[in-house]
Please model this.
Amino acid sequence: MHRFAVDPGSTDISPVSFHPVLWICAAAVFAVIVLQSVIYLRAIRKAAGSVNLTDQQVLGSVRRGGIAAIGPSLAVALVAISLLPLFSTPAVLTRIGLVGSAAFDVAAAGLAAQSQGAQLGGPTYTQKVFAIGFAAMTLGGLVWMLTALILTPILAKGDKTLRKVNPAVMTVVPTAAILAAFFTLALTETTKSGVHVLTLLVSAVVMGLCIAAAKFFDKPWLREWGLGIAIFVALAAAFLVTAK
Amino acid sequence: MSSKTASLDGLAQFERTTSIWGPITLGLGFLVSLAAALFTAFGTGLGITGQEVWTSFGIVFATFGIIAVVEPISYYPILGRSAMYQAFMIGNIANKLLPSALIAQTDLGEKPGTRRAELIAGAAIIGAALVHIITLIILVGFLGTWLLGLLPAGLIAVARLYILSAVFGAVTVQAVVAMKNVRTTIIAAVISAIVVFGVIRVAPALTNYATAISVVTVIIVAWYARKRTDASAAGAPSSIGH
Model:
């Protein structure tokens, strides 16, 4: 009944986060991916013969790729579900599930909330903060699409200036940027409250254990599932210590 | 001779189709996302100003912009031209699309880099994308939304309040392990701590730019402190954005 009760200061974000337009956009992104897949599959089947691929082998590769993606897809779904309370279904489906990733989108929304002097999920998480956070993560994600659109034709031409970039730049810069971003974001969490510190530590330890166990027992799936498992165990710990 | 012409034609047509429809479909995905962002900010009557959106986008861009430029360059040699347009729309490149493509190529005894491998990768990515979409719609779209309505409000409130800590703890560990670079890890940890517990305390006005300041500083310090002898080229960086 309050579906469209838009109020920038309200902490019930659902009128905005479940807005029909966002559902339509989410459906449209899925439709574009299906459209692309159909066009590509037709093109691949037509060209297959010229590189000694039978139609069966092409369809077999589709199936093989699909089967290989089941595990990772379930792992992504688990992380996505944990973010539903924060961002609601349409945003989670498109941002976390498809185009973006949990790490980037949560970071982007957190940074955007901070610029409003607010915190995601808390009493200051209003419709307005959700909207700005969603806009920031989406616009940020568009930069990836844009660079892919611009750089792919340039790289395809074998552009020399891009190839001549010092390989050290390509390894040092992204490593430094990613580590700096997430260390800063993680440490900023510790300044919020004791429970935040505990949640952060539990999450980090569980992830570490998953990675170690994956290596020790030679079970790579544990690594894939690590993020989802760590988030749920950490939230459970937060719930236990805050429960009255 | 004639078979050679036919083979060129087949691939040339694939080239043509994907070089037209790849950008068009990725461009469509771009426009839909842009529309969603602009509508949420300006079309819902929340009274958000352009200034507020640009400020928050600017902070995000200052933090992650450089990674968004580096990732397409580092994935290109593995994915090939046509698959770039698939990968940067579907996302989850490192954890899902690349393994799917590699498994399908191995099955058919092909190594990345050939035209045959590019077609196999394209087919495998299609399969991965469809499985991913179906899981998302069923598990997150239907089941997740239903589950959300079922959980007590207190539980949801806790999940909302502490989810950032829960994500960043694991992601930071994941990044440290994936990067396998002790030197940069130490530099990043120390500088981030100085920024969060020092700079921001002294100059609270810089709070919004804390992450961007750390990123720029760590890049500069890590660059000058890098191992000069280590010429081994690492593979693609583990994806954070996509």
